[in-house]
Amino acid sequence: MTDLDESLSGDWVFDPSHSRIGFSARHAMVTKVRGAFNDVDGRIHVEAGDPSRSSVMVTVKAASVDTRNAQRDEHLRSPDFFDVERFPDIVFRSTTIDEVEDNAYMIVGDLTIRDVTKQVAIPLEATGVHRDAEGKLRAGFEGTRRVNRRDWGLEWQVALDTGGVLVSEKINLEFEISAVKLED
Predict the structure, then answer these.
(1) What is the CATH number of the domain that holds 60?
(2) Residue closest to 81 by CA, chosen among 92, 68, 96, 67
(3) Which of 86, 103, 117, 125 is least buried, going by the fewest C-beta atoms within 10 A?
């Protein structure tokens, strides 16, 4: 396993303009629809000497959902899906972080959507740590995780005349994270 450099210890924040938390879902059994959330706040606490004390906290504003289709986005914000008036935030809080291979981590935690909390394991690959053009220490992470949206009460559905359903129950969550270390 990779020994974390002590200089990585401390607090990191997501750079929202260089990060993406998104999803893809099968539509009408034939194509994928992709979307993302435009308002994301993420924080990572790293304890290089004791990685078990590291943590991740992410808050997504559900109303910021963007699938590049205004009508679909309004439907996703409605009580049929995210019900953003009653449940404005989607929250993930890690409970454990394990390095499963060099630069590959399993982040296990509680994901809350619509006031329903379920444990989920998210595999993330560390794609690099470098100083950017402004001299800030920046780390990259990427990963995907398939979940069943019905586990969080996202039940809306339409049966197709030809069989199948309009929106898949299985959703791929997609993570492309650029985090910047808070330094003095």
Answers:
(1) 2.40.128.110
(2) 67
(3) 86
